[in-house]
Design a protein that fits this description.
Number of strands: 13
Distance between the termini: 17 Å
Shape: globular
Strand content: 25-35%
Helix content: 25-40%
Strand order of the largest sheet: 5-4-1-8-9-10-11-12-13
Order of helices and strands: EEEHEHEEEHEHEHEHEEEHH
Radius of gyration: 18 Å
Length: about 290
């Protein structure tokens, strides 16, 4: 990456949700009712989480997505803007914004139900594609319709813009999308769903390992493990998004993959020490 490239924007094409978070002693089994202790409402969505994480890590970030016409829409837009993310390409569509209902237990594990809302109605306008073609990197997830993900990846790939995909929520992906991805960031469960044949199509694969850190596999097939700093976890929600946003910024700043992964592991670990998908400024920024 050239020095000039470090001043170009990251573009995040993805979801923005309002997270409705309940804390309880243990996650309920099917059919079980458990007593909750606390309830909070926090901005989330994998796309927005990654955009905010990238901004915290010192990146210049533009977000492409959609909110609804409900009371959550302006709140979600304002949160992105106040955390340094450009919302010039954040659309507003009739109906509810996306939401996620999140249950967190005493072991900091979680279960999540996502209702797409406006995320399921978004479209990729020509102005969005033009922004992507001028980006330093495009970040994608799978909480928006696959045709939009593919259109964004295609616009980026045709312009020589690297594409980072976090395949969550995971499902089998078409070869035309995999062929446009430069960097794949996923956890072990997601890797198992996609399979080795799919992963082999991607030049750079980074598998997150929770408290153990991450594993990087490069274009030559060699792997390296990157440890995470020890922390006392409060809530693992959003840790993967913090990891991904920090990784993207480090990558476009010109850090080699292992150094970028170390910075990402620190950001992901820090995110577990606070509730929800928000976190304080990344100490690795700057």
């Amino acid at each position: 990456m050239t020095q000039a490239g470090t001043h170009r924007r990251l573009v995040v094409l993805g979801s923005v949700n309002m997270d409705l978070i309940v804390r309880t002693g243990h996650l309920p089994e099917p059919g079980e009712t458990v007593q909750g202790r606390d309830f909070v409402t926090l901005p989330g969505g994998k796309g927005a989480n990654q955009a905010r994480a990238a901004a915290r890590a010192g990146g210049r970030v533009s977000f492409v997505g959609a909110v609804g016409t409900d009371e959550f829409g302006p709140m979600l837009a304002a949160t992105l803007a106040t955390q340094g993310v450009s919302i010039d390409r954040l659309g507003r569509v009739p109906g509810p914004s996306g939401i996620a209902v999140i249950t967190v237990d005493d072991n900091a594990e979680n279960s999540i139900v996502v209702v797409p809302g406006a995320n399921g109605q978004m479209r990729l306008a020509e102005a969005d594609a033009a922004l992507i073609r001028e980006a330093a990197m495009l970040l994608l997830q799978l909480e928006i319709p696959l045709p939009i993900v593919l259109a964004g990846a295609t616009a980026a790939a045709e312009a020589g813009v690297p594409v980072l995909l976090n395949p969550s929520p995971v499902y089998p992906l078409p070869p035309e999308l995999l062929g446009r991805v430069t960097i794949l960031v996923l956890n072990q469960g997601e890797a198992a769903v996609l399979g080795e044949a799919a992963l082999a199509k991607i030049p750079h694969v980074i598998t997150t390992l929770g408290a153990s850190g991450a594993r990087y596999r490069g274009p030559d097939g060699s792997t390296s493990d990157v440890p995470a700093p020890p922390v006392v976890a409060v809530d693992t929600t959003g840790a993967g998004d913090a990891f991904t946003g920090a990784l993207a910024v480090a990558w476009v700043q010109g850090l080699d993959p292992l150094r970028a992964a170390r910075r990402a592991c620190a950001a992901g670990a820090l995110a577990t020490t606070y509730p929800g998908a928000s976190a304080p400024p990344d100490p690795a920024a700057g």
